[in-house]
Amino acid sequence: MKKVLLIEPAFPIPVKSKNHKNLLPIGLLKMAAYLRENRTEVKLLRGLPQDIVETTDVINFCPDEIWVTSLFTYWARYVKDAVQYYKGMFPKAKVIVGGIYASLLPKNEVINYTGCDEVWQGVLTEAEKYFPAYDLVQDMNPDSIDYQIVHASRGCERRCPFCGTWKIEPEFVPELSIRSKIKYRKVIFYDSNFLMNPHIEDILRELIDLKSANKIAWCECQSGFDGRILLERPRLARMLRLAGFRYPRIAWDWKYDEHPEIERQIGLLVGAGYPKKDIYVFMLYNWEVPFEEMEMKRVECWHWGVQIADCRYRPLNQLHDNYDARQSMQTSKDYYIHSETGWNDTLVKQFRKNVRRQNICVRHGFPFYSAPFEHKRFGREIMKRVKELESIEMKIQFLERMEIDYWFPERVEESARHCDYSGR
Predict the structure, then answer these.
(1) Rounded to an integer, what distance in angstroms lies between the CA atom of residue 5 and that of residue 186?
(2) One domain, residues 132 and 44
(3) Do residues 81 and 217 share a domain?
(4) 3-class DSSP assignment, residue 43
(5) Does residue 415 sit within a domain?
(6) How far apart are CA 50 and CA 58, in angstroms?
(7) In terms of Cα–Cα distance, which of 315, 309, 135, 121 is closest to 221?
(8) Total count of domains within the chain
(9) Would the CA dihedral through 255, 259, 260, 262 be positive or negative?
(10) Is 229 buried (19+), middle (13-18) or exposed (0-12) by CB count in 10 A?
(11) Does residue 34 fall inside a structural domain?
């Protein structure tokens, strides 16, 4: 019987996030199910053998082929490390690299950089019909995976220049039905554009029926919802709510002057029954929209009472990213900085810091952010008192009398001009 060793490289993922719904190697799990069906013995390894207790079992497995997955292009060196390590361990095995990085770059570049024997690009369509082999990642605990990942479609008809989906999956391929795919009560959709499916209402009705029958607890859509489609078909917002979708996300990747349209999208979700603080707005920063305009967008989200999912831009062909929030004065040699529109290391980190503080305020209903409060150095009575004061000037005077460090999310002009939110 043929043997295939499936490898998830030692990506810099915290141990506690190994089985997180956003980081599970779902492609490898589908391939495992496909290979098993085709009389192939498979073994999955996550990382390098020195990190794994079963090193002896790995050596004794002696695979004919080694399939290595890849994620972001800037994690390419982890793929290279895995290829080199396993080629050294099993010199007779053919090593094949697939996944996102392998699909975004030319094959010869991937082969030359990693040293693999072969590159697979795009989606292995033969494996798509198989239910993922979740048993390979349950680590002897059947309850360690209590959700499933589903695709109701592949690809996206949008052609956003910063996104690689349409390059990896150039055709939009929708499913007519997903009822037969649902096995678990928690469902994560990995669709790049879930609402673009022409059969979306039929699919949502299936989910609503399953939710009503208590066969699913909740759903999430990892890539969020296309707000432009929501505006075209407002009834979808209510259907999403009835189907059990939680934490809805929409994108605001472009200019500030789109804010009336974004506000209408949020209004549809609120009207469908979603609490404002559970709604997220994807924002791409360190890109073509400059810092000052991103700050204006951030403050709009504060006024709307929604959270921000910030996404730092990296080029699709970038093979490294040594960004470190704890370091100052990093340069484009460390990570990509979009200097063409005025971004620099200070502004990149400031915007991320502003978003984090604002999200804390939105989630907890705080009128301002304070590091001492976050670390429980003073109580909620201070927050309550500040809330009761009418103007921001009065709030500031009170906090300064109390000698409390503060940051107000709505103060966009000061943040853009001075780029200093450390407090007074």
Answers:
(1) 29
(2) no
(3) no
(4) strand
(5) no
(6) 11
(7) 309
(8) 3
(9) positive
(10) middle
(11) yes
Q: Residue 18 sits in which domain range?
A: 2-123
Percent of the chain scoring above 70 in pLDDT: 93
Tokens standing for residue 331: 């340069």
pLDDT at position 289 over 50: yes
Cα 13 from Cα 47, distance rounded (Å): 10
Amino acid in the structure at residue 337: I
Eight-class DSSP state of 409? T
CB atoms within 10 A of CB 143: 6
Cα 269 from Cα 262, distance rounded (Å) = 11
Q: Are residues 200 and 247 in the same domain?
A: yes
Strands 65-68, 94-97: pairing is parallel
Render pLDDT for 369-421 as a digit per residue (tens, 0 to 9). 988 888 777 777 888 888 888 888 888 898 888 888 889 998 764 444 444 43
Beta strands in 104-258 (DSSP E): 118-119, 148-150, 153-154, 173-174, 186-189, 218-221, 249-251
Residue 334 falls inside a structural domain: yes
60 backbone dihedrals φ, ψ, rounded to 5°: -70, -20
Question: Per the structure block, which two tokens stand in for 40?
Answer: 């192939």
Contact (CB, 8 A) for 223 and 192:
yes
Instruction: Report the distance separating Cα 342 and Cα 208, nearest Å.
Output: 47
Instruction: Write the CATH number for 45.
Output: 3.40.50.280
Helix (H, G, I), strand (E, B) or coil at 68: strand
Q: Are residues 155 and 256 in the same domain?
A: yes
Q: Which residues pair with 284 in a beta bridge?
A: 311
244 and 356, same domain (yes or no): yes
Query: How far is 188 from 182, CA to CA, in rounded Å?
Result: 10
Q: Distance between CA 379 and CA 45 in Å, rounded?
A: 47
| pTM of the model as a whole | 0.89
Place of tokens 């069906």: 37
